[in-house]
Each structure stands twice: as structure tokens, then as C-alpha cells.
Design brief:
84 residues, mainly alpha, 4 helices, 71% helix, transcription regulation
Length: 84
């Protein structure tokens, strides 16, 4: 897995806020998975989720958003370098 741009809880939660996810337990499980390296199965069980697939789906959405941010920042940097 590619590391997120900033491995920080605030950043991860900001990304989560910009997904369709509305379940706080899934968000908490994903944070524990990404920040503390716990297996998705462990975090799902810890937060009373029926399956790790909820964590996995949210992780995919968060990674897509992070990749979009990476790409956008790279494009912005390139534009600013060419502009100056």
C-alpha cells in the first residue's frame, strides 16, 4: 500500500469526511488500521462491525482521494514553476 500523503489522523479524517461514509465506527476502524497498522479484521471486530469489507471499501475511497490530492499538488507545482 502506498503511504498516504500525510499519515496523520486529522488528514485521514478529513479525507473520510469527503467520502459517502457515514458510519463513525468504520471511520474509527480505518484510522486504527492506517495509523497503528492493525489488520482490518482486528479493527472491524474492535468497533463492532460485521465485516472488514466496510473498512476495505472506505480505505479504497480514502486512497483515491489522497491520490487526487497528490496529482493536483504536482500539477499545481508544475504550473507555478512554468509560470515563474
Amino acid at each position: 500500500m502506498k503511504k498516504l500523503l500525510l499519515m496523520d489522523e486529522k488528514y485521514i479524517r478529513l479525507l473520510i469526511e469527503n467520502t459517502k461514509s457515514t458510519n463513525p465506527a468504520v471511520a474509527d476502524a480505518l484510522v486504527d488500521h492506517l495509523l497503528y497498522g492493525l489488520a482490518q479484521e482486528q479493527t472491524a471486530k474492535k468497533y463492532g462491525l460485521s465485516s472488514q469489507s466496510q473498512v476495505s471499501r472506505l480505505k479504497g475511497s480514502v486512497i483515491k482521494l489522497d491520490n487526487l490530492i497528490r496529482t493536483s499538488l504536482a500539477m499545481k507545482d508544475k504550473f507555478e514553476q512554468n509560470k515563474g
